Amino acid sequence: MSMTADRRLARTFVTLADTLVVDFDVLDFLALLAERSVEHLAVDAAGVILSDQRGGWRPAAGSSERADLLELFTAQTREGPCFDCVATGKPVTCADLRTAEAQTRWPRFSLAAAGSGFRAASAVPMRLRDQTVGALTLLNHEPVTLDPDTIEIGQALADVATIGILHQHAAARGELLAEQLEATLQQRTVIEQAKGVLAEYLAFDMHDAFTRLREYSHHHQRRLSEVARDLAGGTLRPSAFATPRSWPVEDQPASPPA
Fold first, then answer.
1. What does pTM read for this prediction?
2. How far apart are CA 60 and CA 62, in angstroms?
3. What is the per-residue pLDDT across 65-94, written as a single tens digit (0 to 9) for each?
4. What's phi and psi for 135, nearest 5 deg?
5. What are 127's strand-pairing partners?
6. Which of 14, 35, 93, 227 could form an S-S bond across to 122 if both were Cys, CB 3.0 to 4.6 Å?
7. Residue pLDDT, tens place only, 210-232
């Protein structure tokens, strides 16, 4: 890893750690985790699943809509590297999902991955002590074996994210943990609804709609979940998102954090 890459990675950990000392938006934070995982780990897409605290697993964030769709399918079929990962609490890797071993082990996941254009998949757990609350899934279009250093960095990112979403204090009590995870997943549903509204109004694909939603929330200094709720509920019109250049100067989209 070059010095420049080292510095970028260090800045990512600082960015993730900064959210621990302020009131932060969990879903926006998880989207950042997925995006930065793609940047630093040389993978083509990444997604996060979380426990719904009832024995099920649901998608919470993705680096792209393609990753989101695959994560959703994985949550429905209950198989694949991410489910082996949350079951064991250990990283799981598959260099080529078209091998006979992978297709026998995860037949539906392998088929869904092929349909989405992915050939390799790995997952690292999001752990709190002995409890696994989710997983970070890493996807590649071509067969590839992730080296131990990459897996170690991915695990470190997942560990920081786990601490962040649980806010440390809430993690000390099981009932608060369950409430926080459930609230996060409910907010994700509202965000999906808001993305649909924007996608239809602006004739965007879902990924661009989510990007515009995040830009608006960041530069109007509002929570992503609050903006999504207002948009989905009709109190915020989709026309407000149409032309960022018309936003006040102080609200113009800034460059993303390094």
1. 0.67
2. 7
3. 777 777 777 776 788 999 899 989 999 999
4. -150, 150
5. 132
6. 93
7. 999 988 988 888 888 899 999 99
